[in-house]
Write a structure and sequence with these properties.
It contains two helices and 13 strands, in the order E-E-E-E-E-E-H-E-E-E-E-E-E-H-E. The chain is α+β, with helices and mostly antiparallel strands. It has a four-stranded antiparallel sheet, covered by helices on one side. The chain has a three-stranded antiparallel sheet with strand order 1-6-5. The protein has a three-stranded antiparallel sheet with strand order 2-3-4, covered by helices on one side.
Length: about 180
């Protein structure tokens, strides 16, 4: 069996798990998430833990076993504690501000970039050069952070751009004068 897949997922007291035919719903104080199960994956709840089993030892089912367990563990964590990513803007005049449902970024282009904030994600401008992206769905939080970072990725010479807070930029030496 998969080492990850066979590990039970503890259910915190504030989370509630419901299983219907091929859908698992997890609800908690922060919201509710659903997961559509693939055929061959079975989920059972007992003793405040979630157990995932597979129907066979086929390669496809083995691959899904650990994946389904990780997705369910992320759902439980998301509805109880949530997820967050931090972004930092570095560069002369680089700024970010949140106005209503829009994130406005000044990233050294001739125009500001307007990014509509998705309904399932919350974006806060902690300061003009740092952003906090939070939500209950780990995949959506990471996707929104990656989309914002793609507007201007950090470059290796001066380190200007949008980077994750824990990201280290590998710096290169510039040209030497002749």
């Amino acid at each position: 069996m998969s080492r990850i897949g066979r590990a039970p997922i503890p259910i915190p007291s504030q989370a509630k798990v419901e299983i219907t035919h091929d859908t698992v719903s997890v609800s908690g104080p922060k919201g509710k998430l659903h997961l559509q199960l693939q055929p061959g994956m079975m989920v059972k709840v007992g003793n405040d833990k979630i157990f995932i089993t597979r129907s066979s030892d086929e390669k496809f089912h083995k691959a899904l076993h650990g994946l389904v367990r990780s997705l369910l563990a992320n759902m439980v964590q998301g509805v109880t504690r949530g997820f967050e990513k931090r972004l930092e803007l570095s560069g002369l005049g680089f700024r970010a501000q949140v106005q209503g449902g829009t994130l406005t970024l000044n990233l050294g282009y001739s125009h500001p970039i307007s990014y509509p904030i998705p309904l399932d994600v919350k974006i806060e401008a902690e300061s003009p050069t740092s952003l906090i992206i939070s939500g209950i769905d780990k995949q959506r939080v990471g996707q929104v952070a990656a989309q914002i970072r793609d507007f201007r990725k950090p470059e290796p010479y001066k380190g200007k751009g949008v980077k994750y807070a824990n990201e280290r930029i590998r710096r290169k030496a510039g040209k030497t004068g002749a």
